[in-house]
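2024-03-11 09:14:02 DEBUG pipeline.ingest accepted 1 chain
2024-03-11 09:14:02 DEBUG pipeline.ingest length=169
2024-03-11 09:14:03 DEBUG pipeline.predict start
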Amino acid sequence: MDSPEPNLTDLILRIDEAITEGREAELLADLDIPVGREDQLDAARDDLIGGLLQAPGVDHRNLGFAEQPGWLRLGIMMAAARWLDGHARTCPHNPTAERPAPVHMALWLPDLVVCEECTYLLVAPEHPSCAGCGMSDEVEKGIGPRLMIVVVGFLAVRLWACTECMPRE
């Protein structure tokens, strides 16, 4: 894609539709990203979820992408669109959609995409704020936003959310 701005909005809408309808492999094929088979995407997603669920104290909610709040969907789609369009920085291992493997992003660093080995590069802010409403942890200690990881396909997206903005089951 030559210029990111005119096509980015269209790409974001296409990503939303593909993820909502479970057609990620079709979208990647439309973008001329050679993905061997849809089972590679499924395996990458399963590896990602399996690895995340092994962490102690993980609260797991299985929500579809369409059930996520609009602010969260938009943030994820914009970060994914920049990455797919070639306008995001990556870790030294250069994760790409051409090689479906678990990939990690953070909404507070929307232009950085890393592999599983390089998640340490997703440094949390000193005073995190909710990605939905902007509430800071400085407002009242103990009730600030919590770190969440939302899995979309083979992407694990980190974000901070307060109890009011957190996705519901």
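2024-03-11 09:14:41 DEBUG pipeline.report The two ends are 37 Å apart (CA to CA).
2024-03-11 09:14:41 DEBUG pipeline.predict end
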